[in-house]
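[09:14] KT: can someone run the structure on this one? pasting the chain below
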Amino acid sequence: MGIGYATAYRTGIIPWERAGRTGLPVLERLLDSEELARPEGRRRAIDLGCGRGAHTKLLVDRGWDAIGVDDVRQAVDVAVRRNGLDDARFVIGDVRHLPHSGVGTGFDLFLDVGCFQGLDAPDRALMADGITTLAQTDATLLLHTAGPRSWLRGGRGATRADVERAFTGWSITGQVVALPEGGAQRDGAWYRLTRDPVD
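[09:31] RB: done, structure tokens below
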């Protein structure tokens, strides 16, 4: 997982950062909703596959106690330098083994902008199990996937069924189709997942 991304960061071929910037207005609206739901409550967040930390910084700037995790050291080093955040805000860790990455527990919000879609089915299940282990009972996951045809652009992509299959014990409570400027539909969507009540 990390070798291909490490090479991409080293060579500067990181098209997913452009996609992350393009989707920023939708993410801002989704975060507005999450913050309205927690006006006085906890706001502890984790940015999964944080890369160079732009979304981690966004969360911190919006008042979240946020931490970014990524398994590519080059990306995390840049995240610390570029964002003006304490290096404690970033962890070099594997999203497939979150409980052992040293990020702690008790997160209210998980943010995934394109990380899940790059994993195969067994690794997606590991990631989902780790998220469940670290999540508060009323936690939310905001997950962006570029869609099933993104393998043509270097990733596997993911469908709604892929998300539902991996995240047992969670329900998709919202879906926003990703739209570029001009309004034409592109592959991909934002999914909002919440934990199912525990009996």
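[09:33] KT: thanks! The mean pLDDT is 83.
[09:34] RB: yep, looked fine to me
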